[in-house]
Amino acid sequence: MNSSLSISTLDRSPLHARCTVTGVEPPARAPEWRQWLEEIGFMPGEQVELMSRSAFGGDALVVRVGRSTFALRRAEAACILIESSV
Hints:
mainly beta, SH3 type barrels, 6 strands, 43% strand
């Protein structure tokens, strides 16, 4: 069975889809986010999963990278480039 890869950002990932981090691209207004996100584990090749979104369009996302779980804002998760099998 052939599968194709889908490239996106973590904030757009479906819930509970296992994805692979391909990079971090911070916004121009916050270049320090790259170092911070990489320090907490969002490195190319790491497995990542969007665990939950806050209700009613809230800003918080719960994500798992490796064996750690974090709460990120949507803007932070949008910096994390991912690929997933579809």
